[in-house]
Amino acid sequence: MSRCIQRSFRRSALTLVELMVALTIVSILAAISLPTVKNTLRDQKLARAAGLLRSAIEEGRARSIAGGGGGVIIDRLGKDSIAQRCSSNRIRFATAPKPYTGDIALELALIGVNAGGTPDDFTDDTIALWFRSSALQLTRSASDLSSGTRFRTLINYGDEVLLGDAGLRFTIQTIDFGTATLRASDGLPAALFAAPNLPPTWVRVQVVANEQNLNMLRFRGTQSRFSIFRSPRPAIAMPIEMPQDTMIDLSVSGLGRYGNQFSPMAIEGNYLDVAIAPFNSVSVDYESVMILFGARGEVSRVLLTWSDGSQTDLPVIGDIHLLVGRGGEVKTAPEDQLEDTDPNPIADDADDGITPLLDQESIWVTIKSRTGEIVTSNWTDPTDDSTSLIATGNTAITDLDLRQQDRIQRTIGRVRASAVASSDIGTN
């Protein structure tokens, strides 16, 4: 009986040859399935990144509806290289402060005008608003600006001023402490001030009228109520970081079907010469892209911000399209962006460095400008029997730089329209 049990026990074990065969089979199966698993995980990561971006935008929109203004800020990775300027993996919330009307009741601005033009031509007039030291936020802003800390100021260059009941609108150009010399050049007599010599605590805000050829001489020396609409700024909230190895490709993101207004190439107007900005190594003061919503949830403003605190408004000419792709794949030259050296970019292996614009794993996140609705669209092949993936440029354009811009934007439009249209009709 014991021998039978012993023989049975010995038969239940694996020989070395059997073990090696089993390990070989397991290794082969793992090698076959690993790329599929790897691609699946990568697809899931991009889907999570696009979902996170969409959720952040929806929250920024909801905050705006609840609080009367705000949105999201898309931060560039940095400003020291074209790849950093073209990529983002962090989103912050923006808030629009309430208009500033002074720190005391019935605070007034004194209007000064230096007539620099000819009669009936007011385009060269210099318009300045003078504020007493009781306007504490303006006093602090003038102090900050004089010390070079522009990005910390409460009121800044580019902010809009509304004067009186007539609704005259102006844009702030400079903020500084006034002097007796400037008072005299603005046509303001010393009698309007507390002493013959102007106290250094008065703040002088030079503005430019939003309405062309506006005659402000008739208001010189008068006082007016005011409202200053301060530029939006980051909200006090933790930023949202996208998953590792994912990013927003700003080189192909922008407004409208063909727009890539967030790209340094579009900002600098250079799609060809890598010896000058934005391709050279000289640091450029790129900062963030700011998307703001109105009280009803619509897109109200889109701004490019700069490291000195200034902002540039982009016209909202269409929906906003943001491309979510793999991190580290933004190209450093425009010809690489279109994979010109690759005969078949769609068939690329996942690890050979395809540009996000042509990567089937990339996802478009679109903000409908009129309603604020956010939708996501998977990458869709825009080609058929009569088209190619990469569009040809308009050969009628003789300027090579403009021809390259046209070619890149045509390709962007082709890929973007295909994905968004597929999403709109429910096939994506």
In short:
By secondary structure, the protein is α+β, with helices and mostly antiparallel strands. The protein folds into two domains: about 45-95 and about 235-425, no CATH class; about 110-230, Elongation Factor Tu (Ef-tu), domain 3. It has helices at about 1-10, 15-65, 80-85, 135-145, 180-185, 265-270, 335, 400-425; strands at about 70-75, 85-90, 90-95, 110-115, 125-130, 160-165, 170-175, 205-210, 225, 225-230, 235, 240, 245-255, 285-295, 300-305, 310-315, 320-325, 365, 375-380.
Structure description:
- With 428 residues, the protein is α+β, with helices and mostly antiparallel strands.
- It folds into two domains: 244 residues, no CATH class; 123 residues, Beta Barrel (Elongation Factor Tu (Ef-tu), domain 3).
- The chain is built from eight helices and 19 strands.
- Strands 1, 3, 11, 12, 14, 15 and 16 form a seven-stranded antiparallel β-sheet that branches.
- A hairpin with a 6-residue loop joins strand 18 and strand 19.
- The model has no long low-confidence stretch (mean pLDDT 84).
Task: Compile the SSE list and pairings.
Layout: H1 2-11, H2 16-67, E1 70-75, H3 82-85, E2 87-88, E3 90-95, E4 109-114, E5 126-131, H4 136-146, E6 160-163, E7 168-177, H5 180-185, E8 203-209, E9 223-224, E10 226-229, E11 233-234, E12 240-241, E13 246-255, H6 264-268, E14 286-293, E15 299-306, E16 311-314, E17 320-326, H7 334-337, E18 363-367, E19 374-378, H8 400-424
Antiparallel strand pairs: 1-3, 1-14, 2-13, 3-11, 3-12, 4-5, 4-9, 5-8, 6-7, 6-10, 7-8, 13-17, 14-15, 15-16, 17-18, 18-19
